[in-house]
Amino acid sequence: MINFxxxxxxxxxxxxxxxxxxxxxxxxxxxxxLGKMAESPAxxxxxxxxxELLKTSxxxxxxxxxxxxxISLENGCTYCVPVHSRGAKYxxxxxxxxxxxxxxxxxxxxxxxxxxxxxxxxxxxxGMLKEDQLQAFIDIGYSKANVLEVILAVAMKTISNYANHIxxxxxxxxxxxxxx
Length: 180
Fold this sequence. Notes:
Layout: H1 14-27, H2 32-37, H3 41-55, H4 61-74, H5 80-90, H6 95-102, H7 110-124, H8 131-139, H9 144-167
Helix pairs in contact: 3-9, 4-5, 4-7, 4-9, 7-8
């Protein structure tokens, strides 16, 4: 098996060091995924840039975490599911909602359930949705911008979910309580 290094700020390739320095400043630690992504400064920067762009979307922080969790669940990412379970908790998503998402169950909140179903369909069908799926999403109160922002989230999570599958990223200790 090819092993990928989990870099630190000091050991990372030169072009990744400044990026990791900013991560360390913001997060107070370097998550294992980002340490591994440092192998490719372009990939690391792309992922972090998409993450920052998603934060500027019209979705609330709770909705963003639900979207990222649903994508990670659909892609079977054992690293990102715990990360976004924890993120959802910090974004004030209820434990009941997080548990339902992780177990593939319907959500009690109709609008969040519609979001879950839409995101799930986008991932499963690779964006080839039927008109009625788009219309149902709009009809429950989401916007055309939200459709495109879901695609932004899918792009972001495709990078991390696929990277984790290939890199066999070890779960960070802070995420252990949310292991999936």
